[in-house]
């Protein structure tokens, strides 16, 4: 049935059955049986799901897979039987060119053995470790050592199309696990950047993770190698992320506290085309770690798994509520003195979340949003798988509805060969392929994908059947029939018809009876068929209703999410605006303050000047008073001198016009003396004015006319001519 289809499918889907726990009593019945393969040397490909014997009459379903691994299958059986080796080899591109992207995914109900298969246990290695082992050993002679190759970091970072933060393993591991060689040093020491690392080292964790003491070595595959490109040199980049609620989060960048709310939040990343990758979507902004050894790669994996657990717990979730991605990017370039740009492809290992029944999720208290998102993404995954296997063709991406959610976009974006336009490299002259003899091999091969579905035949029937429905390459449904009354009647009537003797042309009463019975039986058979058909219709519409309900729930959740996002955006925008407004206001306030100060300074200057002017005026007034007083004093002195002259002997007396003038006997003389007095007054006024002008000119007050007048001694006065005095 599905054999041809599975050959053409983009995914090879394997089923692994989990063995029962060794130390537990088995209480439940096995609901799953494996069909024997046609040939003894082949592995089984089909299983039948037998519903439990409850009151509900359910269909028996038969599922087809590429191969079914039964309970006794070992890790090594899986490693060799699922095509992990060709997957790794394809990524290394032994024939030259970029190689072929590989995808290894696990899907299953919680506890069905996904982690055991993909990551192993304490004692056994999983497919991831085995794939890394064979990969690192195969390229060991051609891999560049990140610790000694100075240009490695810079060239790899420059060629990365995903706006990634490329970091050395040493730096990353020191921030996550602490520096083992520096136990005595302060634990908060920032790690030393490697040569070529241009960005500041990340803040070390407060609580370092515990370095795994010993990693499991079994199963041993030291004799297994894959072919590599002999003309290439390689570098390995590891990144990890998860899809939670349809959003992508980096697992190698721990959550950082929000500036305003102080809450630890993870920044969702975008799956988009970038400047360097315009025709191919990539997860942009991831942290990528250059690993030189397998041990470093495993330590990075451990750190990422820890982050997934911590982030899951923080958001009230458990690990299986997100789809985890572990990416091993194999960078390769031509080995030469003048190597070209880095090219390469990636091996992506995905741990898909198990589906949840919405009803169970509610009763178990898990958020409906998570359950809805997981169910929705798995439903889209199932649709894609179904579509691609139905089409039997890998060249029609438009017919596979993989753009409906992040999970299917991430899983299927590289599943289709690029269009003729896309296959032309954008910078052919610099790329690895330009130097290569087969440039046409660039990205012409779509990714090779393997899905391993794990199931516990003794586990939850409903959850397992849902997972199998989503993942199987093909499905057949058989509706079982209860041995019906119709068939019994018909059997009886047929038997009696053959063996009862017929008499003449007339029908005996028993014949009429039998005929009636036959008609009734036919009618019952028809109705029974109809009921079966209706039941089938009902079960179909019921599952459609459930899907629609899941849809509705997820749309509602999306609406809530969008609302929260919009609110957050508005808040951020508002805050930004407030900040810029505050900044603007501060500038305005500062300039206003400066202007006010300048204004005040000016006012003060004017005020000081006016005070000086008032002082000057009052001083002038004082001088005037002084002069008036001096004037009076001089007048008195003149009077005294006159009297003195008058009282002297007549021989000594000199004829003085003033004395006459002052005696008032001769009016002419008197008039003259008055004019003389006036001229004395004018002289005094002139002296005052010149004193003023001297003062105004800033000369010391000592040189004032008043002082000059004062300097005239009595002797001088005596010797002076009277005219001179007047
Ligand atoms: N093939 C196997 N052989 C032996 N033990 C197994 C096998 N598969 C699973 N187990 C055991 O079953 C238990 C559950 O398996 P595991 O943790 O791998 O389940 P899971 O599907 O990854 O669950 P979850 O989704 O919760 O992580 C583990 O103890 C594991 O060791």
TrEMBL record:
GO terms for cellular component: kinesin complex; microtubule; nucleus. Residues 180-200, 416-446, 644-682 are annotated as: Disordered. Pfam families: Kinesin. Residues 432-441 have a biased composition (Basic residues). Residues 517-565, 604-644 form a coiled coil. PROSITE patterns: KINESIN_MOTOR_2. Residues 655-682 have a biased composition (Basic and acidic residues). GO terms for molecular function: ATP binding; ATP hydrolysis activity; microtubule binding; microtubule motor activity. InterPro entries: Kinesin-like_fam (IPR027640), Kinesin_motor_dom (IPR001752), Kinesin_motor_dom_sf (IPR036961), P-loop_NTPase (IPR027417). Residues 181-190, 416-431 have a biased composition (Low complexity). Residues 10-452 form the Kinesin motor domain. It comes from the Eukaryota. Gene3D superfamilies: Kinesin motor domain. One of its GO terms (biological process) is microtubule-based movement. Keywords: ATP-binding, Coiled coil, Hydrolase, Microtubule, Motor protein, Nucleotide-binding. The keyword ATP-binding applies. ATP binds at residues 108-115. SMART domains: KISc. Belongs to the TRAFAC class myosin-kinesin ATPase superfamily. Kinesin family. This is P-loop containing nucleoside triphosphate hydrolase protein. It comes from Hyaloscypha bicolor E.
